[in-house]
Design brief:
about 650 residues, 16-stranded mixed beta sheet, Chondroitinase Ac, Chain A, domain 3, disordered N terminus, 64 strands, mainly beta, 1 helix
């Protein structure tokens, strides 16, 4: 049979005696149409397009006979040739024999090569490029290492062209072989040949692996998911998928040095990274892979026996910092709970992965999820952690809370942003660098002057040198089991722009103050909580300027300095709860004061109620122990 310009089939052809010469176009036009046209060792040469909506198969086996196989050659010489349709297209041998033009055959559909993909027929000197369209894979079923031949970029370009959107070259692997993936891309104005090579180990089940190479995306021409620390990297990556083999082995990727191929300095390449999920998708993570980088040959290799389970992902070589994982809080929870973390910067994405949390020295985290300190994700340390960096919030509209408990954060950077909250459990509080004490011991530490600070330890604490001298709010909620084991002691004056709150335990102001810096906010001393004031301070000047005061009836204010005035802020409402004065020195009452609980005078103290004071009114008891109550005004005891 002879054909002129083309061959079209809407039925089924099973004529194994036909021999085809050269055709321009082949069309298989119906979903149930089939073409099995070739006799053994015959060739079919096409200069036009192959359109298949049914079945095209040049490696068909007929029942009771030998395998029917033939070589299919693309021989166009002007325009690119297209393989398209929605059917099943299989070739026994697919050979590139383009006679000129762009040298490109583009497959817009999945194709299967049963035996051989030959990227150059005989000694053809022209470019020969098999370009894979969007999601179109080329699968070679023959597991021989020679089942893909003649890929090169020496003089001419002979390779499988892939891209960001295209499919993969999929090869079938068996043990103990070296498999070349002759792949490249068209970018920076030309063809770029950057093959991958797999050296299979001696054991494991046969199966497939698919690879493509893609130029990077975005303004920098890089992998979109590189960290902000990326400075030196290849502007392309190799993506591995379709892994069904269990054979371990070594991967090698050949990169280029030319214009647009590398960002930064190749000499600073220091690490091999694999990103999952593949193709730059959101929600993935980097893993640094052991291997070698040979800059003189422009290649990088994994370790020799990389497990097949570790193949899938996007592969890249860069400076070491480029592959740091960046975790975002996704809900309130413990640090080591995988449900606490996502790789999605929205803070509401899927979990980073089963069993994954920030546990590597190069990991970084952002704790957020809230806004202006409301609805924060509260991440609680449940073990000591050492990471590259912790960002506690990123601004007013993304705030977070870190509950340190009695554990530490070490590593490089701790950066607390405005309106975020740190809950401090260490007996040393928070310290400035380089002191290796307190809950935060990173090399660099930023504690925000507009942050919220809560001391919630279980034993005595000091605020620490890291507490800023101006804060948004200051809270004491120490849960020590008794009054002598729940004290938080100040080390210097602190200005509080919002609220000063003592909910549990004791705030010992020593000789310092914690006044309002704005005239706004509230002072609150809850029932059961204590406030201790030393030196010559009184409550009016040690906690001055708040817009409102709440002092619980079952709270206690203790004056333990020298000469002090037992005054109270003018807007303090109902007055004190309990009052204790202790230690030598005269504590004076110069204006009317209400004490709704007991007034206790201990340790050689003298409480002086000045003349004209009408009155010092104690609703509870007056307790004296080796001390003096000197009254020249009025003292009313009881209700």
């Amino acid at each position: 049979m002879q054909f002129g310009d083309g061959f079209s089939n809407a039925g089924q052809v099973f004529d194994y005696s036909m021999e085809f010469g050269s055709l321009h176009n082949i069309a298989v036009g119906a979903a149930d149409a089939s073409v099995h046209p070739l006799t053994p060792d015959s060739d079919l040469r096409i200069t036009g397009n192959l359109t298949n909506e049914g079945t095209f198969n040049s490696c068909q086996t007929r029942t009771g006979s030998a395998s029917i196989s033939a070589d299919f050659l693309f021989q166009g010489n002007t325009n690119d040739q297209i393989i398209s349709g929605g059917g099943t297209t299989s070739f026994w041998e697919l050979s590139m024999d383009r006679q000129g033009g762009g040298g490109v055959v583009e497959s817009q559909m999945d194709i299967f090569i049963c035996n051989l993909l030959d990227l150059r027929e005989a000694t053809n000197p022209n470019d020969q490029i098999l370009a894979l369209g969007t999601s179109a894979n080329a699968t070679v079923l023959n597991s021989a290492t020679t089942s893909v031949e003649d890929g090169t970029s020496t003089g001419v370009h002979r390779y499988v062209r892939t891209s960001v959107e295209s499919g993969r070259l999929i090869r079938t692997l068996t043990s103990s072989g070296v498999y070349t993936y002759p792949i490249g891309s068209f970018d920076n104005g030309g063809d770029q040949y950057t093959p991958a090579t797999f050296t299979a180990g001696a054991a494991g089940a046969d199966g497939t692996v698919g690879v493509r190479v893609s130029p990077g995306q975005g303004a920098s021409g890089a992998h979109l998911r590189l960290s902000g620390s990326a400075t030196d990297f290849t502007n392309r990556y190799w993506s591995i998928d379709d892994v069904t083999t269990t054979i371990a082995g070594q991967w090698q990727f050949d990169y280029l040095e030319g214009a647009g191929q590398i960002t930064g300095n190749e000499a600073d390449f220091g690490s091999i990274g694999r990103y999952r999920p593949i193709e730059e998708a959101a929600g993935g993570n980097w893993l640094t892979i052991n291997g070698t980088i040979t800059q003189a040959s422009n290649l990088f290799q994994t370790q020799m026996a990389l497990a097949a389970a570790d193949f899938e992902g996007d592969w890249l070589v860069a400076n070491f910092e480029a592959f740091r994982r960046l975790f975002y809080s996704r809900q309130t929870g413990d640090w080591t709970d995988p449900n606490s973390w996502t790789f999605d910067r929205s803070h509401i994405g899927p979990i980073a992965g089963a069993g994954l949390w920030p546990d590597d020295a190069q990991d970084s985290v952002v704790i957020g999820g809230g806004s202006f300190g409301l609805n924060d994700h509260v991440i609680s340390l449940d073990q000591d952690v050492a990471v590259q960096g912790v960002a506690l919030g990123t601004g007013d509209v993304n705030t977070g809370t870190l509950n340190t408990q009695y554990f530490t954060v070490s590593g490089q950077v701790f950066n607390m942003s405005t309106m975020s909250t740190i809950q401090i459990g260490s007996d040393r509080g928070i310290e400035l660098a380089p002191t290796s004490a307190g809950n935060i011991t990173t090399t660099y530490r930023i504690f925000s002057t507009e942050g919220n600070y809560t001391y919630n330890g279980t034993t005595n604490q000091v605020t620490g040198t890291g507490l800023p001298q101006t804060v948004a709010s200051l809270t004491v909620s120490n849960t020590g089991i008794n009054r002598n084991n729940n004290i938080v002691s100040m080390l210097f004056d602190v200005t509080v722009n919002n609220n000063l709150t003592i909910t549990r335990g004791t705030l010992d102001m020593v000789t310092y103050t914690a006044n309002s810096g704005t005239g706004a906010g509230q002072f609150a001393l809850q029932d059961g909580a204590w406030l201790k004031i030393g030196g010559t301070n009184n409550m009016d000047n040690a906690t001055a300027g708040y817009a409102g005061y709440f002092i619980g009836a079952a709270s206690t204010v203790e004056f333990y300095g020298g000469a002090q005035t037992i005054a109270i802020a003018p807007n303090a409402g109902l007055g004190y709860g309990n009052v204790i004065v202790r230690n030598p020195g005269i504590k004076q009452v110069l204006v009317p004061v209400i004490i709704r609980g007991d007034c206790s005078i201990f340790d050689n103290a003298e409480l002086y109620n000045a003349a004209g004071v009408d009155a010092l009114h104690v609703h509870g008891n007056v307790n004296l122990d080796a001390s003096t109550l000197n009254n020249e005004g009025h003292v009313i005891i009881g209700n």
